[in-house]
Design brief:
The chain is mainly beta. About 5% of the residues lie in helices and about 40% in strands.
Amino acid sequence: MRRIDTDLPGVCILEPDVHGDGRGYFFESFHAGKFDALGLQPVFVQTNVSHSARGVLRGLHYQWPRPQGKLVSVLFGEVWDVAVDIRRGSPTFGRWTAAALSAENHRLFWIPEGYAHGFCVLSEHATFMYQCTALYDAQADAGVRWNDTDLAIAWPLSVPILSAKDSIAPRLAEIAPERLPVAAP
């Protein structure tokens, strides 16, 4: 497995070793020892799967005060996946990075606690998997507006299909500081 660091601390793309032949392919999407060798020690407690049509945008989501780290991947189709640093006091606060994830490239995207996360579907349909380090908590559920002009995320679509919740999410500047994670000293 290969780790590709992004310009945001802790956020990385993982490329597994894929073994394929005429029957198909096999790869390890998680191996504790290999992750540890790459400097990652997540403990997953919940796995979620979503299926969406082309043009659906989910995000930007986070939990606070019970944050989740997420290892995300695509089982079918293709998405453009985004992580945004929303940690108060972070030198990269408000910056984002993105990765193209697909069933063909087998890439995984590690998004540590303290980041907002979202993705949009580029293929006809996509099946997306999230491995999370904390259980979903409706009381901690929060979001940032997908098209916040201060973030200036270069989404590859201009008119996405959104949930009601995502369409009214606040801009990052409108979120009370106590509703945002804090960067570790």
